[in-house]
Design goal:
The protein is mainly β. It has one domain. It contains one helix and six strands. Strand 2 and strand 3 form a beta hairpin.
Length: 63
């Protein structure tokens, strides 16, 4: 999913953290990495975006 699709389906996250900024090396532009946190019924969900696409979802269950 893209950032736009996530915002449309899940709304604004509780928190956004920019992990790294895309850096240009030898003419190639790297992708930025950002983590958005959402609260679900069973815990917290961290969505990691590489560029504008979700690359990983981590679930921290409620205890």
């Amino acid at each position: 999913m893209t950032m736009t699709e996530v915002l449309r389906d899940a709304g604004e996250p509780l928190k956004r953290v920019k992990v790294s900024e895309g850096v240009s090396v030898y003419g190639k532009v790297g992708e930025s990495v950002e983590v958005w946190t959402y609260r679900g019924g069973d815990g917290l969900y961290d969505l990691t975006f590489q560029g504008t696409t979700v690359s990983k979802i981590t679930v921290v269950p409620n205890r």
